[in-house]
Amino acid sequence: MTLSVLPWLGGAVVAVAAGFLAALLPRRRARADGRKVAWSAARAAIHDATVSRDAAATPVPEAERLLARAELLAAAPGGGADAAREAAAHARRADELWRAGA
């Protein structure tokens, strides 16, 4: 009796493990893709703010501080999507300040 139950038990363990992996792997891949997209947007925002800074006629200390904060977040290793969104927000605000000339 015990020998006939072992294959069923093994099959059940394999089925549960396969189901777990089938649910986990796409979520991990989506999270990694989201992080890549967020950092790409953050780098683009930092670049735009840098261009606006270089084109500005007058210095804007608040915008300089925001851009420095965004660049610091971007330089930190291992930042997640939240850090990327924060860096992008700082860079966009700095860009707005330089464009307004305030």
Automatic annotation (TrEMBL):
Pfam families reported in the protein's UniProt record: DUF6403
Keywords for the protein's UniProt record, in alphabetical order: Membrane, Transmembrane, Transmembrane helix
Transmembrane segments: 6-26
Name listed for the protein in its UniProt record: Uncharacterized protein
Organism: Micromonospora humi
